Amino acid sequence: LSDRLNSVFKKFSGQKTLNEENVQEGLREVRLALLEADVNFKVVKQFTDRVRERCLGQEVLKGVNPAQQVIKIVHDELVDLLGGGTTGLDLRGKQPYVIMMVGLQGSGKTTSSAKLANYLRKQKMKPYLVPADVYRPAAIDQLHTLAKQLGIPAFASTTQMNPVDIATAAYADAREQQCNVVILDTAGRLHVDEQLMNELVAMKSALNPQEILFVADAMTGQDAVTVAEAFNAKLGLTGAVLTKMDGDARGGAALSIKTVTGTSVKFVGMGEKISDLEVFHPDRIAGRILGMGDVLTLVEKAQAEVTQEEAEAMAQKMQKAEFDFDDFRTQMRRMRKLGSLEGILKLIPGMGKLRDKLGDLHVPDKEMNRIESIINSMTDQERRNPDLINPSRKKRIAGGCGMQVQDVDNLIKSFAQMRMMMKQMMGGGKKGKKGKMPA
Ligand code: GDP
Ligand code: MG
């Protein structure tokens, strides 16, 4: 795949914006990567259509070519689509909570039930395991063995009982034993089947689970879609567990499941051991689905380089005391993105000393909001030339952002101080040759 990508990239070097043609080309590679990751083709089409719209007209970063940039945009979209951050379990309401594990035979329900119990116990909860697969005697034993190994209570199900009775009796027992989360391991079939579905629906009505997790084998990318659809239609899934991600599966199933059912993957199975359960991270899976880690790093670096270039320009302005409220606002916005002022100062040549001087640079969000709203109330002219701001302008600015004149005054004073300090720190052109930045 890399080779193929590289040849595409070569063709595009030198183009400045993303247009119909180069986006198309970049997306061709993405489409192949998605299909290779076994994402359902309908999902692929829907997704690439969305991305195409977002790409068009964007400027190409220095140091990368259009196709590479398309891939980065695709990656970010993928992360968003997969849920952005991590989506944890949503356990609320009456205790004990109930988590029902559903899915095809062999998908990893029993193993994941035990893993989840172990995970929840680490979260200071008291789990209770319920083997409700009465069709295979070995399935009950399998969960009992795991429960015993973990020292977690489990219901003494037998193959003679019916699953709904097991569920209700187990729930009562869990409450008696003061457990606060019941995990139901249900039966699976090789294919979606009416009888099993009805049984699962009956169990759902009996216990009203907070979570119904669809357990899917990561290797079954395409098939996962129809199966997930069927389970979702009958049961209303609340999340998914993607198992066997320790294999060579790229995780396309995660994307397919999310797109088709709207439910997020909440956990990932990374091996056969009980501890091999991880909370789902969309960015990791997105990178894996695309299998283009190098490209992503490259584009991230290019983005950092642009900031570096801007930083040099900023340093020049500081040196000449030309740093204005526009620059200040830009930096402030960036600061929010990067999370700290320190991150920005590190990028600006010569600012290391200032950083030491200022000590703790953490500015609370609320304060930043106030500052930004004052700056927003200024006119463009005022932002570029703070000296213009006389008392009557101050009054207008304060009125515009609903603050006191004193607040505006304070900001302008500290800004003037900061500008002086910057100029001094940067040498202010006194020593050193013009145009050269102090290191
Ligand atoms: P069930 O039929 O849905 O209950 O599936 P099981 O829990 O019995 O799992 C089927 C097989 O998959 C077993 O051999 C498990 O050890 C294996 N398995 C489950 N989860 C994972 C995983 O995350 N990684 C690997 N490598 N194997 C797994
Ligand atoms: Mg099982």
From TrEMBL:
Composed of three domains: the N-terminal N domain, which is responsible for interactions with the ribosome, the central G domain, which binds GTP, and the C-terminal M domain, which binds the RNA and the signal sequence of the RNC. GO terms for molecular function: 7S RNA binding; GTP binding; GTPase activity. Residues 96-291 form the SRP54-type proteins GTP-binding domain. Involved in targeting and insertion of nascent membrane proteins into the cytoplasmic membrane. Binds to the hydrophobic signal sequence of the ribosome-nascent chain (RNC) as it emerges from the ribosomes. The SRP-RNC complex is then targeted to the cytoplasmic membrane where it interacts with the SRP receptor FtsY. This is Signal recognition particle protein. Keywords: Cytoplasm, GTP-binding, Hydrolase, Nucleotide-binding, Ribonucleoprotein, RNA-binding, Signal recognition particle. GO terms for cellular component: signal recognition particle. Coiled coil: none annotated. Its EC number is 3.6.5.4. GO terms for biological process: SRP-dependent cotranslational protein targeting to membrane. Signal peptide: none annotated. It comes from Desulfovibrio psychrotolerans.
